[in-house]
Amino acid sequence: MRNKMQKRITRTVVLLCVALLLSVSLSGCGFRMRGALEIPVQYKSVAFFGVAEFSPLGKVLRQYLSSAGLEYKKESPQADLVLTITKDDFRRRVLSVNSSGAANEYELIYTMATKASNAQGEALANEITIELTRNYIFDPNNVLAKSDEEARIKTQMQQLAVRQSLRQLNVRLKQNEAGNTETDTESVQVQKTTPATE
């Protein structure tokens, strides 16, 4: 019994030591892990403009930026990183109709475009554009439930777009750290089509 306890304690100590070594290694490289993102250590706070703070996209932005360890600031002079949302647009088109001519399948298209700068207004990244698509079935006999489903799908698409945008931003910030000064417009389009199921 005592041997088993000692083995468990030894294993725990070893795992803690490995985790500590990994943490020190990442810090030594100039980056720290914040949630699922790697952010250069000099960026500790963020402000964003172009969408209202408590709009659907604003709420998603705050959620992911907070989980990344960035403190939200309402004014750009107070922030190390300033994001400007230049596009937040949903479009919907009919994919198929029923025998009565009413739509029974739609395609949602979401486009989000983001620019990043510092507090002085100097660009840190070229514009990043994310475009997502999602199909879903529409039942004209159950409009309320389908409206709720569409709202849920829109939230999921915004969440995915924010994650993709932040990942691309991290790449650009790392390139800046390495001395990359490219100025060509950066555009990233992600197509995701997932038919809804009943």
Give a verbal description of the structure.
By secondary structure, the protein is α/β, with parallel strands linked by helices. The protein folds into 2 domains: 1-34; 43-177, 2-Layer Sandwich (Double Stranded RNA Binding Domain), CATH 3.30.160. Helix content is 37%, strand content 31%. The chain has 3 helices and 7 strands, in the order H-E-E-E-H-E-E-E-E-H. It has helices at residues 2-28, 56-67, 143-177; strands at 31-34, 37-40, 45-49, 71-72, 81-97, 103-117, 123-137. It has a 5-stranded mixed sheet, with helices on one face. It has a two-stranded antiparallel sheet with strand order 1-2. Helix 2 crosses helix 3. The chain is elongated and about 60 Å long. Mean pLDDT is 77; it is low at 17-35 and 181-198.
**Element pattern in H and E:** HEEEHEEEEH
Instruction: Give the averaged pLDDT, no decimals.
Output: 77
Q: Strand share of the residues?
A: 25-35%
Give the biggest sheet. 5 strands, mixed
CATH level 4 superfamily of the largest domain: Lipoprotein like domain
User: How far is the first residue's CA from the last residue's CA?
Assistant: 54 Å
What are the low-pLDDT stretches, counting only 5+ consecutive residues below 50? 17-35, 181-198
So what's the overall shape? elongated
**How many strand segments?**
7
CATH topology-level name of the largest domain: Double Stranded RNA Binding Domain
Structural class: alpha/beta
Task: Evaluate the radius of gyration.
Answer: 22 Å
CATH architecture field of the largest domain: 2-Layer Sandwich
Number of helices: 3
Amount of helix: 25-40%
**What is the CATH class of the largest domain?**
Alpha Beta
Number of domains: 2
Strand order of the largest sheet: 4-3-5-6-7
